[in-house]
Design goal:
611 residues, alpha/beta, Immunoglobulin-like, TIM Barrel, 3 domains, five-stranded mixed beta sheet, five-stranded parallel beta sheet, 13 helices, 24% strand
């Protein structure tokens, strides 16, 4: 067998050489062929296996493999199966059940100050939507607190939610009557005095179940307000109680202005119409006598005695409607304050009140926050402090600081409130210097605790007077509180160097506002008054009078959209008047200690504001 290599037409000769031919006579190519064949001579070359193409296969015509295939049916089946799987996944994947704004209303309420009783049943309404394609359910628990005390709780049993339907209202009834006895006294005190509103906190958690899965819906942490005006019983003498003037004949009541002081004798009982008429005539006569003794419009107690010769700035200042500077050189201050909890909600509303308005020197409009510790937010407090706001104290849990409370309780509430701002929220120690009592309920014990613990000012007392044109400037308590309408002020009280920034009652169209201008404050009246008109009236009297500070004290329940808009309108009006500045309470006291004339006010305030 010849080598495949010699079968190549380029190597093999046309005729093979004879094997008998002598080697020496053989041609060179023959010898070359032998040399090439030599290595393969001893190797056996196997024939290559036949290729598949070398076989013949017979298949019957009936074989299914020879039948034509319909690939469209296969494609349709596969596509349908894929859609089925996708639909199952689409339907079974849970979507978030949404919870709307929760509302709370009083289903039944009763309270009686005489019996010291209180009952409240609430209904919490929770709108819930199920965006899934199958039924879901919602469950959870709610807890109601009156400040720090738990008043009641409720468990929401599983409630079925129809798929992709309109929001369903889930109702939960809560008996909020189970509060400690000392908190009941606070509730009764708040219900029987302005603004006759109770502030509760609502906490809880909601869960949803869809198929086999549980979903955490929401953590509830909010507050709500209940108007207790229609549900309570107040003794007539307590309900008609007004800030009464302590009247004296002869050396009687001192005052410092030329305005008459209205006297309302509403807490006396008379056996006949003749006696009532006689007392009304006497009241009118005494009012005239008081007006004759008036030098600046504020009625002072008969025992108040303070001499500027021995009480002088910066450490001491007598109560007076006279500015430390001539009126023409006195700036008109406006001080905005908020009482109670400081959280993101109320901070946003306060930002809406001040808006983008600025003092004429570019300083933003600040606020003073009398901070209730319960449910306040340190992060919000720090943010507002960095913006230039002031933070003062308003107790831990908002009790009425009545004289019957033990001193240790008063100390805990007041000092604990300051510790929260200083130690928990890390505010500078020198920045927290003021206090305002819950419900404006104060007495000598409260003032003594403030004095002993180094507070620089209190803002819990007000003067009852006819107008804003001649109200007293802030004063020190070296000679006690001079307000004749103060029922808990005593001769001999002395707190040297501690200031009082009064809460001036604002009167407008037979309404009297110590705080929350424009809201109803008169028993039996329900008329709302425009905030801008109330504040404009007070501002104009002060601006054209002695220019004592004009306060705007509010609570969160006052901050409706309408009142916010009306307050913005007033702020714009006030800033259009020359030498008008919005400042904090601390800044007012700083100015009182070292008064600065109008010509220097822009620079003075700019050095103290946060731009």
């Amino acid at each position: 067998m010849t080598s495949p290599l010699l079968e190549d037409e380029h190597l093999a000769p046309p005729l093979p050489a004879s094997d008998d031919e002598p080697a020496e006579t053989r041609r060179p190519w023959a010898r070359l062929g032998e040399q090439i064949r030599a290595p393969f001579a001893s190797r056996r070359i196997e024939p290559e296996p036949p290729t598949p193409s070398g076989y013949l296969t017979l298949i019957p015509l009936s074989d299914a493999r020879l039948q034509p295939r319909d690939t469209r049916l296969t494609a349709v089946f596969l596509i349908g199966f894929a859609f089925l799987i996708a639909a199952i996944v689409f339907i079974s994947v849970p979507r978030s059940v949404s919870v709307g704004e929760i509302s709370v209303a009083a289903d039944r309420m009763s309270w009686n100050t005489t019996k010291a009783s209180y009952q409240l049943r609430l209904v919490a309404t929770i709108p819930v939507s199920n965006p899934n394609y199958l039924r879901a359910s919602i469950e959870g628990e709610l807890k109601v607190l009156f400040y720090m005390a738990e008043a009641g709780r409720a468990v929401i049993a599983p409630v079925s939610l129809n798929p992709r339907a309109l929001p369903k209202l889930v109702h939960a009834q809560i008996d909020a009557s189970d509060v400690p006895a000392d908190y009941i006294l606070s509730i009764l005190s708040q219900c029987s005095t302005f603004p006759e509103v109770l502030v509760f906190f609502l906490k809880g958690k909601l869960r949803a179940r869809y198929l086999w899965q549980y979903q955490h819906l929401a953590t509830i942490d909010t507050y709500f307000m209940i108007n207790c005006r229609d549900g309570g019983t107040v003794p007539a003498a307590e309900k008609n109680e007004t800030a009464m003037v302590k009247l004296g004949i002869g050396g009687g009541a001192k005052s410092s202005g030329g305005l008459s002081v209205p006297v309302r004798l509403t807490n006396f009982m008379f056996s006949s119409q003749e006696e009532l008429a006689a007392m009304n005539n006497l009241a009118a006569l005494l009012a005239v006598l008081i007006s004759l003794h008036s030098a600046q419009g504020a009625t002072y107690s008969s025992w108040y005695s303070c001499s500027p010769s021995t009480c002088s700035l910066p450490k001491c200042h007598c109560a007076s409607g006279k500015s430390p500077l001539p009126v023409s050189e006195t700036p008109q201050f406006i001080i905005i304050s908020n009482d109670d909890t400081v959280n993101d909600d109320v901070a946003k509303k306060m930002s809406k009140i001040t808006g983008s308005a600025k003092n004429v020197n570019g300083c933003p409009i600040p606020a003073t926050w009398f901070t209730l510790t319960a449910y306040s937010s340190c992060s919000v407090i720090k943010k507002r402090f960095a913006m230039g706001d002031e933070f003062a104290c308003h107790t831990l849990t908002h009790p009425a600081l009545k004289s019957t409370l033990a001193k240790s309780v008063v100390v805990k509430e007041i000092v604990g409130s300051r510790n929260y701002l200083l130690k928990t929220c890390k505010l500078p120690a020198a920045s927290v210097t003021g206090f305002r009592a819950p419900y404006l309920t104060t007495n000598p014990r409260v003032r003594q605790v403030l004095y002993e613990n180094g507070f620089r000012y209190d803002s819990s007392n007000g003067f009852d007077y006819a107008g804003m044109a001649s109200k007293p400037f802030p004063f020190t308590l070296d000679a006690s509180l001079p307000d004749a309408s103060c029922k808990n002020c005593r001769p001999g009280e002395s707190y040297k160097g501690m200031w009082e920034i009064p809460i001036y009652n604002v009167k407008y169209k037979k309404q009297t506002y110590s705080m929350d201008p424009g809201m109803n404050t008169t028993w039996g009246k329900a008329k709302e008054l425009p905030v801008d008109q109330v504040l404009k009236g007070a501002f104009d009297q002060a601006y054209n009078g002695n220019r004592a500070p004009v306060p705007i004290g509010v609570h969160v329940y006052w901050m409706s959209a309408r009142r916010i808009k009306e307050t913005q309108k007033f702020i714009k009006y006030a800033l259009s008047k020359p030498n008008t500045y919005f400042v904090t309470y601390r800044q007012v006291l700083e100015w009182m200690k070292k008064p600065v004339p109008n010509s220097e006010m822009a620079a003075w305030l700019k050095a103290r504001c946060k731009m």
